[in-house]
Write a structure and sequence with these properties.
Length: 252
């Protein structure tokens, strides 16, 4: 009999999403290791999978092991180069080295753009908007421009993170009025293409910003609505306390 192995030439993000459980990076690492060894995938796909193994190890703070995995990959395409740079950047940022992380995220964005992979381009841009102090709004705006051209729902989901992160940057910097439209836009993206958790968090963020703006009646209505959906959520409970008897919130 001939070899019936099917070589998948690339890895779809939906496959990586299936392998990921960010609440359990150890189990995720096991799945990524098995997939990276699976010859049903092409060489390029296995390289991409290996970068996610490195990311899972990084989430467990096994930074040396994560770097070793990335060092072992000989990239066969700009897409793999982008993923390696992106995950190296995340590892550096996790170790409080933003000045090292930023050039890596920049490289990732450029490689992803050259490979015409909008999903990875947006991932890198959203990391730049987090890591590059003093340029948060600039990188977010670049991300918004790229996002406007995106058509795939999974790619458009980056609108949630880009707007939410910029919203918190503005809110925590004392610009709640400017932040609110971004929280609202993040919620719109969450409703369009996001997950149930993103929709819940998006509603919470809008209500939290309304409290800062002094629109407490509106905020309380929204938080009580969220409490009906998740009665045990500590962040919702803390906001309701803050809105009803002025006790400290969980974040304070």
């Amino acid at each position: 009999m001939g070899d019936t192995t099917i070589q998948l030439q690339t890895i779809d993000q939906s496959v990586l999403d299936t392998l990921w459980d960010f609440s359990d990076p150890a189990a995720s690492a096991e799945r990524f290791q098995a997939a990276a060894d699976d010859l049903a995938y092409s060489e390029e796909a296995r390289e991409e999978i290996a970068t996610q193994l490195a990311r899972a190890l990084g989430l467990m703070e096994q930074f040396d092991d994560a770097e070793a995995v990335l060092d072992s990959i000989v990239p066969s395409s700009p897409i793999v180069e982008a993923r390696i740079a992106l995950e190296r950047g995340r590892l550096r940022l996790a170790q409080n080295e933003p000045l090292v992380a930023v050039p890596l995220f920049t490289k990732a964005a450029r490689r992803a753009a050259s490979g015409r992979v909008t999903f990875l381009t947006l991932d890198a841009l959203h990391m730049l908007a987090i890591a590059d102090a003093g340029h948060e709004e600039e990188w977010a705006e670049v991300g918004f421009a790229v996002l406007e051209r995106a058509t795939q729902p999974r790619t458009r989901r980056w609108g949630v993170a880009l707007h939410n992160n910029l919203g918190w940057f503005l809110h925590d910097g004392g610009h709640a009025a400017e932040a609110l439209p971004h929280f609202e836009r993040a919620l719109e993206y969450a409703r369009e293409v996001g997950t149930a958790d993103q929709r819940f968090i998006g509603r919470w963020a809008v209500a939290r910003c309304l409290r800062t703006l002094g629109r407490t009646d509106e905020a309380l209505v929204q938080q009580r609505s969220l409490a009906e959906k998740r009665p045990d959520d500590p962040y919702v409970a803390a906001e309701i306390r803050a809105l009803t008897d002025d006790r400290s919130t969980i974040e304070e």
